[in-house]
Amino acid sequence: MTRVAHLAKAVRSIPTSVATWVRNASYLPKWLVLGSIIGAIAGLGAVVFSVALAGATHLLLGELAGYQPPTAAGDGGAAGSGEFTRPWAVPLVVALGGLVSGVIVFTLAPEAEGHGTDAAIEAFHRNPRMIRIRVVLVKLVASAITIGSGGSGGREGPTAQISAGFGSLLARKLDLSDRDGRIAVAVGIGSGIGAIFGAPLGGAVLCCAIPYKDDFEYDVLVPGMVASIVSYSVFGSILGFGPLFGAAASEYTFESPIQLVWFAIIGILAGLIGLLYSGTFYAFVDLSHRLPGSRIVKPAVGGLLVGLMALALPEVLGSGYGWIQQSMARVDLAAIPLWVVLLLPFAKILATSLSIGSGGSGGIFGPGMVIGAFTGAAVWRLLEPIVPGVPDSPAPFVIVGMMACFGSIARAPLAVMLMVAEMTGSIGVLAPGMVAVALAYLIVRRSGKTIYRAQLENREEARQLQNSPG
Predict the structure, then answer these.
(1) Ranges of each domain in the chain
(2) Which three-class secondary structure state does DSSP give residue 151?
(3) CATH hierarchy code of domain 259-460
(4) How far apart are CA 52 and CA 61, in angstroms?
Protein backbone atom coordinates (compact mmCIF):
# COMPACT_ATOMS: atom_id res chain seq x y z
CA MET A 1 0.00 0.00 0.00
CA THR A 2 1.45 3.39 -0.96
CA ARG A 3 2.14 6.17 1.53
CA VAL A 4 -0.76 8.20 0.05
CA ALA A 5 -3.14 5.29 0.55
CA HIS A 6 -1.99 4.90 4.17
CA LEU A 7 -2.56 8.62 4.74
CA ALA A 8 -6.02 8.51 3.18
CA LYS A 9 -6.97 5.53 5.33
CA ALA A 10 -5.73 7.32 8.45
CA VAL A 11 -7.76 10.45 7.60
CA ARG A 12 -10.91 8.36 7.02
CA SER A 13 -10.47 6.75 10.42
CA ILE A 14 -10.38 10.08 12.31
CA PRO A 15 -14.18 10.44 12.73
CA THR A 16 -14.43 6.88 13.99
CA SER A 17 -11.57 7.42 16.43
CA VAL A 18 -13.09 10.66 17.71
CA ALA A 19 -16.51 9.06 18.13
CA THR A 20 -14.96 6.15 20.03
CA TRP A 21 -13.08 8.50 22.36
CA VAL A 22 -16.18 10.59 23.02
CA ARG A 23 -18.30 7.54 23.83
CA ASN A 24 -15.67 6.18 26.22
CA ALA A 25 -14.58 9.45 27.84
CA SER A 26 -15.73 10.38 31.31
CA TYR A 27 -18.18 13.23 31.86
CA LEU A 28 -15.77 16.12 32.46
CA PRO A 29 -13.23 15.64 29.62
CA LYS A 30 -16.03 14.74 27.24
CA TRP A 31 -17.93 17.96 27.87
CA LEU A 32 -14.86 20.15 28.05
CA VAL A 33 -14.22 19.11 24.44
CA LEU A 34 -17.77 18.92 23.12
CA GLY A 35 -18.89 22.01 25.05
CA SER A 36 -15.99 24.01 23.63
CA ILE A 37 -16.77 22.87 20.07
CA ILE A 38 -20.48 23.65 20.40
CA GLY A 39 -19.67 27.00 22.01
CA ALA A 40 -17.29 27.97 19.22
CA ILE A 41 -19.93 27.18 16.58
CA ALA A 42 -22.60 29.00 18.62
CA GLY A 43 -20.42 32.10 18.83
CA LEU A 44 -19.62 32.05 15.12
CA GLY A 45 -23.28 31.44 14.29
CA ALA A 46 -24.26 34.42 16.41
CA VAL A 47 -21.71 36.57 14.58
CA VAL A 48 -22.89 35.44 11.15
CA PHE A 49 -26.52 36.05 11.99
CA SER A 50 -25.83 39.46 13.58
CA VAL A 51 -23.92 40.58 10.49
CA ALA A 52 -26.57 39.18 8.14
CA LEU A 53 -29.34 40.90 10.09
CA ALA A 54 -27.52 44.24 10.13
CA GLY A 55 -26.95 44.01 6.38
CA ALA A 56 -30.55 43.03 5.68
CA THR A 57 -31.88 45.86 7.86
CA HIS A 58 -29.67 48.41 6.11
CA LEU A 59 -30.69 47.20 2.66
CA LEU A 60 -34.40 46.57 3.19
CA LEU A 61 -35.54 49.07 5.81
CA GLY A 62 -32.78 51.60 5.19
CA GLU A 63 -32.35 51.69 1.43
CA LEU A 64 -35.73 50.48 0.18
CA ALA A 65 -38.08 51.88 2.85
CA GLY A 66 -35.99 54.93 3.75
CA TYR A 67 -36.10 54.30 7.50
CA GLN A 68 -33.33 53.58 9.99
CA PRO A 69 -34.54 52.21 13.35
CA PRO A 70 -32.60 53.14 16.50
CA THR A 71 -30.12 50.56 17.77
CA ALA A 72 -29.00 49.37 21.19
CA ALA A 73 -25.70 50.56 22.65
CA GLY A 74 -24.00 47.26 21.83
CA ASP A 75 -25.13 47.56 18.21
CA GLY A 76 -23.76 51.07 17.80
CA GLY A 77 -26.31 53.12 19.72
CA ALA A 78 -27.65 54.96 16.64
CA ALA A 79 -30.58 57.28 17.25
CA GLY A 80 -32.30 56.24 14.01
CA SER A 81 -33.79 58.40 11.28
CA GLY A 82 -36.80 59.37 13.40
CA GLU A 83 -39.28 59.50 10.53
CA PHE A 84 -40.20 57.75 7.30
CA THR A 85 -38.87 59.38 4.16
CA ARG A 86 -40.96 57.02 2.00
CA PRO A 87 -43.90 55.96 4.20
CA TRP A 88 -45.71 54.33 1.27
CA ALA A 89 -42.78 51.90 0.91
CA VAL A 90 -42.78 50.62 4.50
CA PRO A 91 -45.78 48.23 4.29
CA LEU A 92 -44.57 47.00 0.89
CA VAL A 93 -41.06 46.22 2.17
CA VAL A 94 -42.31 44.38 5.27
CA ALA A 95 -44.72 42.38 3.08
CA LEU A 96 -41.92 41.63 0.60
CA GLY A 97 -39.71 40.36 3.42
CA GLY A 98 -42.51 38.09 4.61
CA LEU A 99 -43.09 36.77 1.08
CA VAL A 100 -39.40 36.02 0.42
CA SER A 101 -39.09 34.38 3.83
CA GLY A 102 -42.19 32.28 3.14
CA VAL A 103 -40.83 31.12 -0.21
CA ILE A 104 -37.50 30.11 1.33
CA VAL A 105 -38.97 28.35 4.37
CA PHE A 106 -41.87 26.47 2.83
CA THR A 107 -39.92 25.47 -0.26
CA LEU A 108 -36.74 24.26 1.42
CA ALA A 109 -37.44 23.47 5.10
CA PRO A 110 -40.99 23.91 6.41
CA GLU A 111 -39.88 23.05 9.97
CA ALA A 112 -37.97 26.36 10.03
CA GLU A 113 -41.33 28.15 10.29
CA GLY A 114 -41.93 30.28 13.37
CA HIS A 115 -39.60 31.13 16.21
CA GLY A 116 -37.35 28.05 16.18
CA THR A 117 -36.75 27.57 19.90
CA ASP A 118 -39.71 25.20 20.23
CA ALA A 119 -38.23 23.00 17.49
CA ALA A 120 -34.95 22.80 19.41
CA ILE A 121 -36.75 21.98 22.68
CA GLU A 122 -38.76 19.28 20.89
CA ALA A 123 -35.53 17.78 19.58
CA PHE A 124 -34.21 17.69 23.14
CA HIS A 125 -37.21 15.71 24.34
CA ARG A 126 -38.01 13.49 21.37
CA ASN A 127 -34.95 12.96 19.19
CA PRO A 128 -31.70 14.95 19.54
CA ARG A 129 -30.65 13.86 16.05
CA MET A 130 -33.70 15.30 14.28
CA ILE A 131 -32.53 18.87 13.38
CA ARG A 132 -31.38 18.96 9.77
CA ILE A 133 -28.45 21.21 8.81
CA ARG A 134 -30.62 22.55 5.98
CA VAL A 135 -33.01 23.91 8.62
CA VAL A 136 -30.18 25.85 10.24
CA LEU A 137 -29.20 27.56 6.99
CA VAL A 138 -32.80 28.28 6.00
CA LYS A 139 -33.55 29.69 9.45
CA LEU A 140 -30.56 32.02 9.29
CA VAL A 141 -31.44 33.48 5.90
CA ALA A 142 -35.21 33.61 6.37
CA SER A 143 -34.97 35.25 9.81
CA ALA A 144 -32.51 37.88 8.62
CA ILE A 145 -34.93 38.79 5.82
CA THR A 146 -38.04 38.74 8.03
CA ILE A 147 -36.59 40.93 10.78
CA GLY A 148 -34.41 43.01 8.47
CA SER A 149 -37.44 44.03 6.42
CA GLY A 150 -39.25 45.19 9.57
CA GLY A 151 -41.02 42.05 10.74
CA SER A 152 -41.41 41.96 14.51
CA GLY A 153 -39.09 39.22 15.75
CA GLY A 154 -36.01 38.57 17.84
CA ARG A 155 -32.61 37.34 16.84
CA GLU A 156 -32.19 34.75 19.60
CA GLY A 157 -34.45 32.04 18.10
CA PRO A 158 -32.46 31.68 14.87
CA THR A 159 -29.18 31.70 16.81
CA ALA A 160 -30.46 29.03 19.19
CA GLN A 161 -31.50 26.85 16.26
CA ILE A 162 -28.09 27.26 14.59
CA SER A 163 -26.17 26.03 17.63
CA ALA A 164 -28.78 23.43 18.62
CA GLY A 165 -28.63 22.17 15.03
CA PHE A 166 -24.88 21.74 15.36
CA GLY A 167 -25.40 19.83 18.60
CA SER A 168 -27.84 17.61 16.71
CA LEU A 169 -25.23 17.12 13.97
CA LEU A 170 -22.66 16.01 16.57
CA ALA A 171 -25.19 13.55 17.98
CA ARG A 172 -25.53 11.98 14.52
CA LYS A 173 -21.92 12.03 13.37
CA LEU A 174 -20.38 10.91 16.68
CA ASP A 175 -23.22 8.49 17.40
CA LEU A 176 -23.73 10.01 20.85
CA SER A 177 -25.99 8.31 23.33
CA ASP A 178 -29.47 9.75 23.62
CA ARG A 179 -28.52 11.36 26.92
CA ASP A 180 -25.39 13.03 25.50
CA GLY A 181 -27.30 14.06 22.40
CA ARG A 182 -29.88 15.84 24.54
CA ILE A 183 -27.18 17.63 26.48
CA ALA A 184 -25.57 18.74 23.19
CA VAL A 185 -28.87 20.19 21.93
CA ALA A 186 -29.66 21.95 25.24
CA VAL A 187 -26.14 23.38 25.42
CA GLY A 188 -26.56 24.66 21.87
CA ILE A 189 -29.80 26.48 22.72
CA GLY A 190 -28.43 28.30 25.75
CA SER A 191 -24.96 29.10 24.41
CA GLY A 192 -26.37 30.54 21.19
CA ILE A 193 -28.78 32.82 23.02
CA GLY A 194 -26.14 33.73 25.60
CA ALA A 195 -23.68 34.67 22.86
CA ILE A 196 -25.95 36.96 20.85
CA PHE A 197 -27.17 38.73 24.01
CA GLY A 198 -23.70 38.92 25.58
CA ALA A 199 -24.99 37.01 28.63
CA PRO A 200 -22.88 33.88 29.23
CA LEU A 201 -24.04 33.14 32.79
CA GLY A 202 -27.69 33.55 31.87
CA GLY A 203 -27.13 31.40 28.78
CA ALA A 204 -25.59 28.62 30.87
CA VAL A 205 -28.55 28.60 33.27
CA LEU A 206 -31.00 28.80 30.35
CA CYS A 207 -29.54 25.55 28.96
CA CYS A 208 -30.84 23.79 32.07
CA ALA A 209 -34.15 25.59 32.51
CA ILE A 210 -35.62 25.93 29.05
CA PRO A 211 -36.65 22.28 28.44
CA TYR A 212 -39.17 22.34 31.31
CA LYS A 213 -41.93 24.43 32.82
CA ASP A 214 -41.10 23.51 36.41
CA ASP A 215 -37.78 21.68 36.55
CA PHE A 216 -34.06 22.00 35.95
CA GLU A 217 -31.70 19.76 33.96
CA TYR A 218 -28.73 19.65 36.34
CA ASP A 219 -26.43 17.54 34.15
CA VAL A 220 -26.45 20.29 31.53
CA LEU A 221 -25.08 23.04 33.78
CA VAL A 222 -21.33 22.32 33.52
CA PRO A 223 -21.39 21.67 29.74
CA GLY A 224 -23.55 24.79 29.42
CA MET A 225 -21.04 26.90 31.33
CA VAL A 226 -18.20 25.67 29.12
CA ALA A 227 -20.12 26.28 25.89
CA SER A 228 -21.50 29.65 26.97
CA ILE A 229 -18.18 31.19 27.95
CA VAL A 230 -16.59 29.91 24.71
CA SER A 231 -19.48 31.23 22.58
CA TYR A 232 -19.37 34.58 24.39
CA SER A 233 -15.59 34.80 23.90
CA VAL A 234 -15.86 34.07 20.17
CA PHE A 235 -18.74 36.50 19.65
CA GLY A 236 -17.14 39.26 21.74
CA SER A 237 -13.74 38.89 20.10
CA ILE A 238 -15.31 39.73 16.75
CA LEU A 239 -18.19 42.11 17.57
CA GLY A 240 -17.28 43.44 21.02
CA PHE A 241 -17.78 42.50 24.66
CA GLY A 242 -19.88 45.41 25.95
CA PRO A 243 -23.37 44.79 27.37
CA LEU A 244 -26.07 44.98 24.70
CA PHE A 245 -27.79 47.91 26.43
CA GLY A 246 -24.69 49.40 28.07
CA ALA A 247 -24.51 50.07 31.80
CA ALA A 248 -28.12 51.20 31.87
CA ALA A 249 -28.69 51.24 35.63
CA SER A 250 -25.18 50.81 37.03
CA GLU A 251 -25.68 53.69 39.47
CA TYR A 252 -28.96 52.41 40.85
CA THR A 253 -28.97 51.24 44.46
CA PHE A 254 -31.90 49.82 46.34
CA GLU A 255 -32.33 52.10 49.37
CA SER A 256 -36.05 52.41 50.13
CA PRO A 257 -38.34 49.45 50.96
CA ILE A 258 -41.28 51.47 49.57
CA GLN A 259 -39.85 50.75 46.11
CA LEU A 260 -40.82 47.09 46.56
CA VAL A 261 -44.44 48.18 46.14
CA TRP A 262 -43.73 49.69 42.73
CA PHE A 263 -41.72 46.66 41.61
CA ALA A 264 -44.56 44.42 42.79
CA ILE A 265 -46.95 46.38 40.56
CA ILE A 266 -44.61 45.79 37.62
CA GLY A 267 -44.50 42.08 38.44
CA ILE A 268 -48.28 41.68 38.53
CA LEU A 269 -48.73 43.58 35.27
CA ALA A 270 -45.84 41.72 33.62
CA GLY A 271 -47.31 38.34 34.52
CA LEU A 272 -50.70 39.26 33.09
CA ILE A 273 -49.19 40.78 29.94
CA GLY A 274 -46.96 37.71 29.53
CA LEU A 275 -50.09 35.56 29.53
CA LEU A 276 -51.65 37.88 26.95
CA TYR A 277 -48.50 37.59 24.82
CA SER A 278 -48.54 33.79 24.82
CA GLY A 279 -52.30 33.53 24.30
CA THR A 280 -52.39 36.04 21.46
CA PHE A 281 -49.35 34.61 19.71
CA TYR A 282 -50.64 31.04 19.63
CA ALA A 283 -54.15 32.16 18.74
CA PHE A 284 -52.62 33.68 15.59
CA VAL A 285 -50.51 30.56 14.96
CA ASP A 286 -53.59 28.35 15.13
CA LEU A 287 -55.64 30.79 13.05
CA SER A 288 -52.94 30.92 10.37
CA HIS A 289 -52.90 27.13 10.12
CA ARG A 290 -56.70 26.99 9.78
CA LEU A 291 -57.10 29.73 7.19
CA PRO A 292 -57.18 28.63 3.55
CA GLY A 293 -54.51 29.75 1.15
CA SER A 294 -50.83 29.18 0.48
CA ARG A 295 -48.52 29.02 3.50
CA ILE A 296 -46.02 30.99 1.44
CA VAL A 297 -48.32 33.99 1.14
CA LYS A 298 -49.49 34.19 4.77
CA PRO A 299 -46.24 35.74 6.14
CA ALA A 300 -46.53 38.40 3.43
CA VAL A 301 -50.07 39.27 4.56
CA GLY A 302 -48.87 39.42 8.16
CA GLY A 303 -45.97 41.64 7.08
CA LEU A 304 -48.27 43.98 5.20
CA LEU A 305 -50.44 44.46 8.31
CA VAL A 306 -47.37 45.08 10.47
CA GLY A 307 -46.13 47.65 7.96
CA LEU A 308 -49.47 49.46 8.10
CA MET A 309 -49.32 49.44 11.92
CA ALA A 310 -45.83 50.90 11.75
CA LEU A 311 -47.04 54.02 9.97
CA ALA A 312 -48.61 55.01 13.29
CA LEU A 313 -46.22 53.12 15.61
CA PRO A 314 -42.76 52.66 14.04
CA GLU A 315 -41.63 51.08 17.32
CA VAL A 316 -43.21 47.77 16.24
CA LEU A 317 -40.73 47.28 13.38
CA GLY A 318 -37.86 44.83 13.68
CA SER A 319 -36.35 43.66 16.94
CA GLY A 320 -37.07 46.91 18.79
CA TYR A 321 -33.87 46.81 20.87
CA GLY A 322 -33.10 50.43 20.04
CA TRP A 323 -36.43 51.48 21.56
CA ILE A 324 -35.58 49.57 24.74
CA GLN A 325 -32.36 51.57 24.85
CA GLN A 326 -34.22 54.85 24.54
CA SER A 327 -36.80 53.87 27.16
CA MET A 328 -34.05 53.61 29.78
CA ALA A 329 -33.08 57.29 29.52
CA ARG A 330 -35.31 59.83 31.26
CA VAL A 331 -35.08 62.44 28.51
CA ASP A 332 -35.64 59.97 25.66
CA LEU A 333 -38.58 58.28 27.38
CA ALA A 334 -40.19 61.63 28.17
CA ALA A 335 -39.99 62.50 24.46
CA ILE A 336 -42.16 59.50 23.55
CA PRO A 337 -45.88 60.38 23.81
CA LEU A 338 -47.55 58.74 26.80
CA TRP A 339 -50.17 57.03 24.62
CA VAL A 340 -47.37 55.33 22.67
CA VAL A 341 -45.69 54.09 25.86
CA LEU A 342 -49.00 52.71 27.16
CA LEU A 343 -50.02 51.13 23.84
CA LEU A 344 -46.69 49.71 22.75
CA PRO A 345 -46.69 46.45 24.80
CA PHE A 346 -50.00 45.48 23.19
CA ALA A 347 -48.97 46.67 19.74
CA LYS A 348 -45.75 44.65 19.92
CA ILE A 349 -47.71 41.56 20.92
CA LEU A 350 -49.96 42.01 17.89
CA ALA A 351 -47.06 42.77 15.53
CA THR A 352 -45.10 39.71 16.64
CA SER A 353 -48.18 37.51 16.32
CA LEU A 354 -48.69 38.77 12.77
CA SER A 355 -45.03 38.49 11.76
CA ILE A 356 -44.01 35.17 13.33
CA GLY A 357 -47.39 33.60 14.08
CA SER A 358 -48.31 33.79 10.39
CA GLY A 359 -45.33 31.60 9.48
CA GLY A 360 -42.56 34.18 9.33
CA SER A 361 -39.15 33.36 10.77
CA GLY A 362 -37.72 35.00 13.88
CA GLY A 363 -37.45 34.74 17.65
CA ILE A 364 -40.03 35.60 20.30
CA PHE A 365 -37.59 36.25 23.16
CA GLY A 366 -36.57 39.66 21.78
CA PRO A 367 -40.12 40.98 21.35
CA GLY A 368 -40.80 39.73 24.89
CA MET A 369 -38.02 42.04 26.05
CA VAL A 370 -39.66 45.02 24.32
CA ILE A 371 -43.08 44.14 25.74
CA GLY A 372 -41.68 43.87 29.26
CA ALA A 373 -39.51 46.98 28.90
CA PHE A 374 -42.43 49.21 27.97
CA THR A 375 -44.58 47.66 30.68
CA GLY A 376 -42.02 48.91 33.18
CA ALA A 377 -41.66 52.21 31.33
CA ALA A 378 -45.43 52.76 31.44
CA VAL A 379 -45.50 52.19 35.20
CA TRP A 380 -42.65 54.69 35.64
CA ARG A 381 -44.30 57.33 33.44
CA LEU A 382 -47.57 57.06 35.38
CA LEU A 383 -46.07 56.96 38.89
CA GLU A 384 -43.01 59.23 38.68
CA PRO A 385 -44.84 62.59 38.74
CA ILE A 386 -47.11 61.76 41.67
CA VAL A 387 -45.68 58.97 43.85
CA PRO A 388 -42.78 59.09 46.34
CA GLY A 389 -39.90 56.61 46.15
CA VAL A 390 -39.89 56.27 42.36
CA PRO A 391 -36.31 56.41 40.97
CA ASP A 392 -35.30 59.44 38.92
CA SER A 393 -34.30 57.16 36.04
CA PRO A 394 -36.77 54.79 34.37
CA ALA A 395 -34.00 52.25 33.75
CA PRO A 396 -34.66 50.08 36.85
CA PHE A 397 -38.36 49.84 36.01
CA VAL A 398 -37.61 49.00 32.37
CA ILE A 399 -35.06 46.34 33.32
CA VAL A 400 -37.31 44.70 35.89
CA GLY A 401 -40.18 44.74 33.39
CA MET A 402 -38.03 42.76 30.95
CA MET A 403 -37.04 40.26 33.62
CA ALA A 404 -40.57 39.73 34.90
CA CYS A 405 -42.46 39.60 31.61
CA PHE A 406 -40.40 37.12 29.65
CA GLY A 407 -38.86 35.31 32.61
CA SER A 408 -42.35 34.34 33.76
CA ILE A 409 -43.94 33.36 30.46
CA ALA A 410 -40.80 31.46 29.35
CA ARG A 411 -40.96 29.62 32.69
CA ALA A 412 -37.26 30.39 33.18
CA PRO A 413 -37.25 33.22 35.77
CA LEU A 414 -33.72 32.78 37.11
CA ALA A 415 -32.11 32.42 33.70
CA VAL A 416 -33.87 35.46 32.23
CA MET A 417 -33.13 37.56 35.34
CA LEU A 418 -29.43 36.82 34.96
CA MET A 419 -29.49 37.43 31.20
CA VAL A 420 -31.20 40.81 31.49
CA ALA A 421 -28.84 41.84 34.29
CA GLU A 422 -25.86 40.96 32.05
CA MET A 423 -27.41 42.66 29.00
CA THR A 424 -27.88 45.89 30.95
CA GLY A 425 -24.85 45.80 33.27
CA SER A 426 -27.30 46.13 36.15
CA ILE A 427 -26.62 43.54 38.83
CA GLY A 428 -27.88 46.02 41.45
CA VAL A 429 -31.43 45.71 40.12
CA LEU A 430 -31.59 41.99 40.89
CA ALA A 431 -32.60 42.35 44.55
CA PRO A 432 -35.80 44.41 44.10
CA GLY A 433 -36.41 42.74 40.77
CA MET A 434 -36.83 39.40 42.55
CA VAL A 435 -40.17 40.63 43.93
CA ALA A 436 -41.48 41.42 40.45
CA VAL A 437 -40.18 38.22 38.87
CA ALA A 438 -41.58 36.04 41.67
CA LEU A 439 -45.05 37.58 41.43
CA ALA A 440 -45.10 37.38 37.63
CA TYR A 441 -43.93 33.77 37.71
CA LEU A 442 -46.55 32.78 40.28
CA ILE A 443 -49.29 34.29 38.10
CA VAL A 444 -48.08 32.46 34.99
CA ARG A 445 -47.40 29.18 36.81
CA ARG A 446 -50.90 29.15 38.25
CA SER A 447 -52.30 29.44 34.72
CA GLY A 448 -50.15 26.56 33.44
CA LYS A 449 -49.22 28.58 30.32
CA THR A 450 -45.86 29.03 28.62
CA ILE A 451 -44.54 30.77 25.53
CA TYR A 452 -42.75 27.52 24.53
CA ARG A 453 -45.29 24.80 23.75
CA ALA A 454 -42.62 22.07 23.51
CA GLN A 455 -41.67 22.42 27.18
CA LEU A 456 -42.64 19.49 29.39
CA GLU A 457 -43.68 19.83 33.02
CA ASN A 458 -40.62 18.16 34.55
CA ARG A 459 -38.00 15.44 34.17
CA GLU A 460 -40.44 12.72 35.20
CA GLU A 461 -42.72 13.54 32.28
CA ALA A 462 -39.67 13.63 30.00
CA ARG A 463 -38.60 10.15 31.16
CA GLN A 464 -42.07 8.78 30.50
CA LEU A 465 -42.02 10.25 26.98
CA GLN A 466 -38.54 8.91 26.24
CA ASN A 467 -39.39 5.43 27.54
CA SER A 468 -42.73 5.17 25.75
CA PRO A 469 -42.81 2.78 22.77
CA GLY A 470 -42.50 4.43 19.35
Answers:
(1) 3-239, 259-460
(2) coil
(3) 1.10.3080.10
(4) 14
